[in-house]
Automatic annotation (TrEMBL):
One of its GO terms (molecular function) is dioxygenase activity. CDD domains: NPD_like. The keyword Flavoprotein applies. SUPFAM superfamilies: Inosine monophosphate dehydrogenase (IMPDH) (SSF51412). Gene3D superfamilies: Aldolase class I. InterPro entries: Aldolase_TIM, NMO. Pfam families: NMO. This is 2-nitropropane dioxygenase. Keywords: Dioxygenase, Flavoprotein, FMN, Oxidoreductase. It comes from Mycena venus. Signal peptide: none annotated. The keyword Flavoprotein applies.
Length: 357
């Protein structure tokens, strides 16, 4: 980086994050409509705390974790953010609905008992059951939890609106990690979802391939109320990705570096995803051998060795199509949040200048 560029970056990160207002920032009581995605294997309470500290809203993944670990991650968040004990914990927890269906509702109960501000429900055929569960639990306990529902089609968005979700997450095919193989690109998905829900329906958050402030500005201009980013934060200092995974992401420079696959789910035995759901990750030896039809047990044996080393040549490095834009491997969240919000702010201002008055 040139000394002028470095000076400008230092100047930008020293200044406070500038507010960007949308109905979502009002609902969540945050400064900017930038959200950290729940990312199993990717991040926990410490990463979420940094995003919160710099004006965004963050999700911690419950995934297929234990109640004990979930509590540990929320505690790690609280240790940094230090919310007032009288208020809700200003964080969200992301749930895999098929995992809740498989009798793991204790995770959801633990989150609600911790009084987290929001829950995100994704990937399941019984969304109604869990939205109603949260509403009933809240009513019995005098809480009010904001419910996000991840959708991949107009029908799913309309159903989520009907069920009273507060926010729908329109996830496009670009997204890293699990998503729908049938989802259209995000810009199309956003319009599909907008058309499917009524004017006074849930707020809309965009997800999938969002990497820059310009992307966020474009999506806000197109009517999204906020953006969820996953891959962009995987190179943050507080991410759980190993050095090998980070290096593999920064080295990925072509659009075919990732693929949608269930190969890694076969490796770790997480095979309860609803029809049409798979995950986008960097291609590596595991996907290569899986696609070539090598016996799963043999690939798994090599996978387990690689897992101990955190070796990205075999383990899952979930990443979205935007991975090609990553250039650095170990960034402070502070810098990422400044870069995203400053660029978004500048773009939005520039767009306003296109008008006569
Ligand atoms: C490493 C990784 C793990 C993920 N784990 C989850 C998860 O546990 N629950 C979930 O709802 N979504 C999960 N996702 C999907 C994200 O919520 C989000 O939709 C996605 O990251 C957005 O796309 P992007 O990565 O291109 O920004 C994961 C994504 C990644 C990259």
């Amino acid at each position: 980086m040139s000394s002028t560029a470095m000076h400008q970056t230092e100047k930008a990160t020293a200044s406070p994050i500038r507010a960007i207002h949308t109905p979502l920032t009002k609902l969540l009581d945050v400064k900017v409509p930038v959200l950290l995605a729940p990312m199993s294997t990717g991040g926990g309470g410490a990463l979420a705390a940094q995003v919160t500290k710099y004006g965004g809203f963050a999700f911690i993944p419950a995934g297929d974790d234990t109640v004990e670990n979930l509590k540990k991650e929320v505690q790690a968040f609280e240790d940094i953010v230090k919310p007032s004990p009288a208020t809700q914990v200003p964080v969200g927890i992301g749930f895999l609905v098929w995992y809740l269906d498989a009798k793991h509702k204790e995770l959801l109960i633990a989150a609600l008992d911790l009084k987290v501000k929001a829950v995100l429900l994704a990937f399941g055929d019984h969304m109604d059951r869990w939205i109603n569960f949260v509403r009933d639990y809240d009513q019995a306990n005098g809480h009010s939890t904001i419910i996000f529902v991840v959708v991949h089609s107009g029908e799913q968005a309309a159903a989520a609106a009907e069920l009273g979700a507060d926010v729908v997450v329109a996830q496009g095919i670009e997204a890293g990690g699990h998503g729908a193989s049938y989802a259209p690109p995000l810009m199309v998905q956003l319009s599909v979802v907008q058309k499917a829900i009524p004017d006074n329906g849930p707020l809309i958050v965009a997800a999938g391939g969002i990497m820059t402030g310009s992307h966020i500005a474009a999506l806000l201009t197109a009517g999204a109320h906020g953006c969820i980013l996953g891959t962009r934060f995987l190179v943050a200092q507080e991410s759980y990705y190993t050095p090998s995974q980070r290096n593999a992401m920064v080295a990925a420079k072509i659009n075919t570096a990732t693929k949608r696959t269930l190969a890694f789910d076969y490796m770790v035995g997480s095979l309860g995803w609803p029809e049409g759901i798979d995950g986008r990750a960097l291609k590596n030896l595991t996907t290569q051998e899986f696609d070539a039809g090598e016996p799963v047990e043999e690939i798994r044996a090599k996978y387990e060795v690689a897992e101990r080393e955190g070796d990205a040549s075999r383990i899952a490095t979930w990443a979205g199509l935007g991975v090609v834009l990553l250039t650095r491997t170990n960034e402070p969240v502070k810098d990422i949040m400044h870069e995203l919000t400053e660029e978004c702010f500048t773009r939005l201002k520039a767009v306003c200048m296109l008008l006569d008055n």
